[in-house]
Amino acid sequence: MKKSGSKKKKSTPKVSQADLKVGIITKSTGLWYSIEDRDTHKFYKGRLRGKLKLKGLKVTNPVAVGDYVHYSLEDEVENTVIIHEILDRKNIILRQSTRKKWHGHIIAANIDQAILIATLALPKTSLGFIDRFLVAAESYNVPTYIVFNKDDLLEDEDREYLEYLKQIYEPLGYKCLRISVLEDKNLDELTEIIEGKTSLLVGHSGVGKSTLLNKLASNVQQKTDEISLFAMKGKHTTTFAEMFELEKHDGHLIDTPGIKELGIMSIEENEIGHFFPEIREAMHDCKYHNCTHTHEPNCNVRLLVDEGKIATSRYLSYLSMLEGDDNRK
Ligand SMILES: Nc1nc2c(ncn2[C@@H]2O[C@H](COP(=O)(O)OP(=O)(O)OP(=O)(O)O)[C@@H](O)[C@H]2O)c(=O)[nH]1
Ligand SMILES: [Zn+2]
């Protein structure tokens, strides 16, 4: 990948460096891209100029939502542009490709944080699911907030349970928030968290991501329709991530397709513990440096689980990931 300002490639004689503009990819279908100009905020439909190769990464999509790119105008009437190169990335979120073995699919690039939307019911988000996502986010160094939606449906005992979860997750660095999109509860707090940032929205189907986007982001429906026209199909496909601007504040939300597909890429068995902050901290005092925290004598992790200092649910998630069941789901 080249940095902005680097030399022009030989194979692009007709486009001078001065013609190149910077845009951000707001939607990618693999065939064409929606690009927003960084300065004018005008939207274009873009295609790649030849093949863009990524060093050291085997991925099915070279360009992802959130990528900054150099582009040049192709047709001013049709609003089409050509993408020349991807600018340096801060990070990416990768999942296993469902099409090609040993390949990854980049869900999004250059994100500041993830907002994991969870619900206690309709649908029920399991703790195993939350922990699995947190491990993925840790492995990409992406700060994550756990946002429990549909607070309006909860009974007192459910709220007590959420308080208990908060006491597990907040000391580990994952702030928790209870919201109700339907009743506008705590949406100001959520807005404060996402303001000025690019946030990845994740969660099971039905937790309220679209409802939230419709409240906080601008032109959600409009943009979706526009994109469908581009695709020349009558319908909006939800298989691809898409970026939306916050309506009243700076910042972006990236909506992601079915989280089911978010298989964790290439975490070795002996690395899993490193992505559980409490296990990472405790493992230094295990007797064996290569302790798996399953059966070894003098394992500090198991000791802390027994003492209630590491949550049993977290330890069970660790074991289940170690077994690999969840990775393959
Ligand atoms: N009671 C209640 N229902 C909500 C709330 N937020 C969203 N819903 C409802 O939950 C259902 C699913 O919401 P969506 O926004 O479509 O969920 P989603 O996460 O976008 O789901 P997918 O589009 O399938 O990924 C809808 O019927 C919403 O009206 C809430 O705060 N409380
Ligand atoms: Zn151990």
Radius of gyration: 22 Å
The average pLDDT is 85
Counting DSSP H or I runs of 4 or more residues, the number of helices is 9
Poorly predicted runs: 1-13, 222-238
Order of helices and strands: EEEEEEEEHEHEHEHHEEHHHH
CATH architecture of the largest domain: 3-Layer(aba) Sandwich
Which topology of the largest domain does CATH recognise?
Answer: Rossmann fold
Family: Belongs to the TRAFAC class YlqF/YawG GTPase family. RsgA subfamily.
Subunit structure: Monomer. Associates with 30S ribosomal subunit, binds 16S rRNA.
GO cellular component, one term: cytoplasm
Pfam family, one: RsgA_N
Write the layout of secondary structure elements.
Elements: E1 21-28, E2 33-37, E3 43-48, E4 68-75, E5 80-86, E6 92-96, E7 104-109, E8 113-118, H1 127-139, E9 144-148, H2 156-169, E10 176-178, H3 187-194, E11 198-202, H4 209-216, H5 220-231, E12 242-245, E13 252-255, H6 277-282, H7 300-306, H8 312-323, H9 325-328
Parallel strand pairs: 3-5, 8-9, 8-11, 9-10, 11-13
Antiparallel strand pairs: 1-2, 1-4, 2-3, 4-5, 6-7, 12-13
The structure holds guanosine-5'-triphosphate (GTP) and zinc ion (ZN).
Word description of this protein:
The protein has 329 residues and is of the alpha/beta class. It has three domains: 83 residues, Beta Barrel (OB fold (Dihydrolipoamide Acetyltransferase, E2P)); 151 residues, P-loop containing nucleotide triphosphate hydrolases (Rossmann fold, 3-Layer(aba) Sandwich); 60 residues, Probable gtpase engc, domain 3 (Ribonucleotide Reductase Protein R1, domain 1), CATH 1.10.40.50. 26% of the residues lie in helices and 22% in strands. It contains nine helices and 13 strands. The strands form three sheets. A six-stranded mixed beta sheet has the order 10-9-8-11-13-12, with helices on both faces. A hairpin with a 5-residue loop joins strand 2 and strand 3. Helix 1 packs across helix 8. The longest helix is centred in the middle third of the chain and has 14 residues. The chain is globular. The two termini are 33 Å apart. It binds guanosine-5'-triphosphate and zinc ion. Guanosine-5'-triphosphate binds next to helix 4. The site of guanosine-5'-triphosphate (GTP) has 15 residues, from helix 4. One of its GO terms (cellular component) is cytoplasm. Its cofactor is Zn(2+). Its EC number is 3.6.1.-. Belongs to the TRAFAC class YlqF/YawG GTPase family. RsgA subfamily. Keywords: Cytoplasm, GTP-binding, Hydrolase, Metal-binding, Nucleotide-binding, Ribosome biogenesis, RNA-binding, rRNA-binding, Zinc.
